Records
---
Amino acid sequence: MRNEAQRMLADIQELAPGLAARAAEIEAARKLAPDVVDTLKSVGIFRMFVPQSHGGFELEFPKGLEIISALSRIDGSIGWSAAIGSTSATFIPLLQRETYERIYRDGPDVTFAGSAQPAGTAEATEGGYRVSGRWPFASGCMHAQWIIGFCIVTENGKPLPGPAGAGGPPLVRGFVMPARDWRIEDTWHVAGLKGTGSHHVSMDDTVVPAENFMDVMDGTPCMPGPLYQAVPQLLPLVHSAVSVGIAEGAVSELVAFANTGRQQIRAAVPMRDSETFQGELGRIAADVRSARAFLEAQAASHWRHAQNGTLKSEALHAEGTQAAIWIATTCVRAADACFTLAGGGALYESSPLQRRMRDLHAAAQHAAAHSRHYATSGKHLLEHSALA
């Protein structure tokens, strides 16, 4: 599918000016417009990780990340929504085959949203599980056909123990239901990634069929292929692809701003002719190139493990998360520096640099790339050293 990926990148490049012109509109609406979603469908975004057997492209993981980054360079909310909508397809093979076939019976361009927080409860009942909960950060829920949630499984109202047994984390299962069965609460009033429509979703005392549940950590996928064998290990790098794309967009926009000939107050020369500005720009660009190189190296390593069937590892999950944190932190620093270098002009809502900065700060708050998770990689290093 190399040619398909190249075709998608070419399509995105052609669509970039028109999509970039919609950024302020998307942010004001707090969601993607229906025609923007249709445009993403026409490019093939929502089918790029769907199996070829079901009409998808089943792209190699690094190629898919390249496409997500390309969209994030255009606009952070578009890139984030595309990332959620496309990579959700890697979860779905963890459902029973009959449920999987039902979801894709009308074709591969199925749109998903969801929240990975186990913010609901599921208790066994006749016909499945009785589910109640309220889930935050359901990116893309305004245009999704199906929504994914995660629940703590209970019995008589008490959490069941997970694989580690009593004293360990409770048993958690994911599930999927049509979007019409969820209640969307208008809560997405935020500082960044405003256009992703990441509202809360909820349901109360709803019976969800047992066949709609999945075990993301230890389940056996109903579809073959390396994309579907160790989904949690792949997800931090999806986040990184968005971060790098947004940061690359910020650098490009700063360069364009400087090339207008702008000269700041009390500056001896225009920005583009200032050696101080040139030096700072060079440093920022080096940071972003480093983030891109780290992403590509980690994605290539993960993909080799996926192809060899060795990706399902706590150590590799920690390694990917470590990479995602460093990349997010580096990209935030770069966007902050771009904003600062641009001066007072970057304060206006018409400036894409203030949006880039806000979007990256919002993305870095996500659990997949939050700095507190550095501790996991440190723990693995200590344990490995102790065993060596």
---
Amino acid sequence: MGQGNFTPAYIVVPEGSITTPKGFSAGGLHCGLKKAERHDLGAIVCEVPANAAGVYTTNVFQAAPIQVTRASIEAGGVLRAIIVNSGNANACTGKQGEADAYEMRNKFAEAIHVPIEHVAVASTGVIGELLKMDRVRGGIAELPARLSSTYEAADDFCQSILTTDLVKKEVCVSVTVDGKEVHIAGASKGSGMIHPNMATMLGFVTTDAAIGSEALHRLLRKATDLTFNMITVDGDTSTNDMLVAMASGLAENEELNEAHSDWAAFAEGLRYVCEVLAKAIARDGEGATKLVEVQVRGAVTDEAGQAIAKTVIGSSLVKSAIFGADANWGRIIAAVGRAGQPVNPETVDIRLGDIVTLSQSRPVAFDEEAALAYLKGDTVIIHVDLHMGEGTATAWGCDLTYDYVRINAAYRT
């Protein structure tokens, strides 16, 4: 998106953040859930009731905060705030975990003087341990004083949601709707346990556009399917995956829906925000040294292309070859063939960047040194053309390194 001669409908706001859209403030602090002195409790707050939508993990063992957030959004489709903790997932914690998640919601609602059903809750961290609620309560009492619309406050929030992430992930764009400047911003966390089917992935989107909850949900679901659902780090879908969007409506445009002349422009901006965050998660995969992108063309349908792209990007053998800068196209073709989608074994082309390794399913002599140099870069693009139809898809992931095993072998310690 935004490449070549294509002129995007959005403009990237370089210093933008989740507090750039009108009506939003944020903040974060250290309450003691993490051993190190790092922020571990944060919040996003809207000064008016914001139309809201959420997308959640498909893991059967859904964490308690997801139950709370679902209940809040389903109560009326609006939110005033999202409170988030890191360092503890509050997942597989039974009735006590559920009670703790509701207490987080209720205590924060009381602290900022809003109805309890206007607050969502998200958590990330270690599974199966109860929250240290005395520390959470103390943090909630201090958090309102930390809320601000400044970039620094937004940064505090971004820091508060990280676990094994190496970098914060945020993006902001502006789109013109009814001649008015509308902002869409996002922040996310995710580094390991990433294979969303909605990874541990949390995402938050704010916008000042006027858009109804149901229309926002339709757009969010579509954007998720093309972005967050097209990344993988390790093939594991978390118990806590959640993507929540809030729309304040303070840009005062005519309410967006599919009949609005600027619907497509807004949808493009939202998708771009989600794509940037998704790719940032893939690039920041635990131990990763490279962002890997798989582009599939010529599939029988887009859905078939998506399945093939995710099979290739999720292959441990492909990921290991990329880490070793080994142009082993055999691992790629093997992944294509086991994706369970229609493939003609006589018509597949594969390129690594601009280097053709397979044409019409036949090996092509290529410059091994050039391939080695390309694969040593920090971004690797694998092109697969099936010559079967018009279906296309793009997926993102990362290489599989020694550090991934080291990080996850000692996650709890």
